[in-house]
Write a structure and sequence with these properties.
single chain, 425 residues, alpha/beta, five-stranded parallel beta sheet, 21 helices, 51% helix, flat
């Protein structure tokens, strides 16, 4: 069985690649790095089919390094050890370039196993991911790597690759192709910016075409039929994946049910149930939050149902939950509060926990003021008593500011009355 067309005509020089001119044009950062021959550890981040693997191969050839390719979905630490065993041998005289595809599927321990070798320079790592590396790549690996973002390839940029694909197949088979006007452009557009998938379309169109007068007759109508059922999948699997997810959550946050349902439909048509449910739950907590706190278990229940029944029925409870989130009042007060509190903690702005809150079981003999002195709120009127809870150095910090919605304002009013009575005593 022959390899896919995309592999058979994979570019061997940077000049032959399509797209990524912001990285690979003359004078651009990544192009300069490759030309220098001195490679840092790198992470290629972006949609599938945009040239990440191709560029890794070109870099390995250009720098005369042994290329090893692993995939995060099935590789293991033992695979890394086997590669390390080749160091300082005739098999890799100029060092090893490890291309780790889909690094987001490597767990923390697996990613940590790389550190010793990439720090010493024994292995140069090029990792690729379709997920945001700042969320999915272990921080120690990330800090030792340079991230380059690959962008969707435009239809205009894909057209030359489509033409080259048809020319290669004609040369390979010895049968020329009679290609109707518009075929190149349609395939380039239908692939959604994924060069690999556009070449899959090219091969499918060529193989399925009838021979007429000694030539493959490739007409636009047939090509449109072949690509009709698959075109959206090309949009889903890579190039606009992150934009769709972002638009989905921002539409819910912006209370636009029509837009949110549209982006939900795109995610579900693509089969991305995980992203649809995850962002929905995040939005319920982050953007509706305390304005309507009951929404959190409601959305969780809808997600549970969706995961239980699976697609296509999952669209029904998810649509219910998405519209509910859109129509609900919004408050990010708790979200802002925890962010502010975490910023204090991470910046070292904290102190010793007040004595009355500590888990005290024993006072040393040197302590002249024995006892914990904790005041149990349930032993006081309205189940409240004033005492200090924050450490001395931040005792007046305010992280939570009530939102202007009915729920939070009611709680604010309630506690202002209770705490006001306590102060007046």
């Amino acid at each position: 069985m022959s390899s896919p067309l995309a592999d058979r005509i994979r570019p061997e020089k940077i000049e032959e690649m399509v797209g990524q001119r912001h990285l690979l044009a003359e004078g651009m950062p990544l192009r300069n790095i490759v030309e220098s021959g001195i490679l840092p550890n790198m992470i290629f981040y972006g949609p599938s089919g945009t040239g990440k693997t191709t560029l890794a191969r070109i870099i390995a050839n250009k720098t005369n390094r042994k290329l090893h390719k692993l995939n995060g979905t099935n590789a293991s630490i033992s695979d890394i050890k086997e590669i390390v065993a080749e160091l300082d041998t005739l098999a890799a005289p100029n060092g090893i370039l490890l291309y780790l595809d889909e690094i987001q599927y490597f767990n923390k321990k697996q990613q940590q196993s790389l550190l010793e070798y990439i720090e010493s320079g024994a292995i140069t790592l090029i990792a690729s991911t379709t997920e945001n590396p700042y969320f999915y790549v272990y921080s120690a690996v990330l800090s030792r790597s340079t991230v380059f973002e690959f962008k969707s390839v435009t239809a205009e940029e894909v057209v030359p690759a489509v033409k080259r694909g048809f020319e290669f197949l004609a040369s390979e088979s010895g049968i020329e192709a009679n290609i109707e006007d518009g075929v190149y452009e349609h395939i380039a557009s239908a692939c959604g910016g994924d060069v690999r998938k556009s070449l899959n379309f090219v091969e499918l169109s060529y193989l399925s075409a009838n021979v007429k007068d000694g030539k493959k007759d490739i007409d636009l109508e047939t090509v449109e039929t072949l690509t009709q059922k698959n075109s959206f999948r090309y949009d889903k699997d890579g190039d606009e994946h992150y934009d769709v997810i972002s638009a989905y959550q921002k539409s819910m946050r912006g209370s636009d049910a029509n837009a949110a349902l549209h982006y939900l439909a795109r995610l579900l048509t693509a089969g991305d149930l995980a992203s649809a449910t995850r962002r929905l739950m995040v939005c319920a907590c982050e953007d509706v939050g305390l304005a309507y706190p009951q929404i959190i278990p409601i959305v969780k229940a809808a997600v549970d149902i969706a995961l239980q029944v699976g697609l296509p029925e999952a669209r029904i409870p998810l649509a219910d939950a998405v519209v509910l989130v859109c129509n609900s009042p919004k408050s990010n007060s708790a979200y802002l509060g925890i962010n502010a509190a975490m910023a204090d903690v991470q910046n070292g702005n904290f102190g010793r926990i007040p004595r009355q809150l500590q888990n005290m079981h024993y006072d040393g003999e040197d302590n002249k003021n024995k006892g914990q002195f904790y005041l149990y709120p349930h032993g006081y009127p309205n189940h409240y008593v004033e005492q200090q809870y924050l450490p001395d150095v931040i005792k007046d910090a305010q992280y939570y500011v009530p939102g202007e919605n009915k729920n939070e304002q009611a709680a604010k009013e309630y506690w202002s009355v209770i705490k006001g009575k306590n102060k007046n005593k």
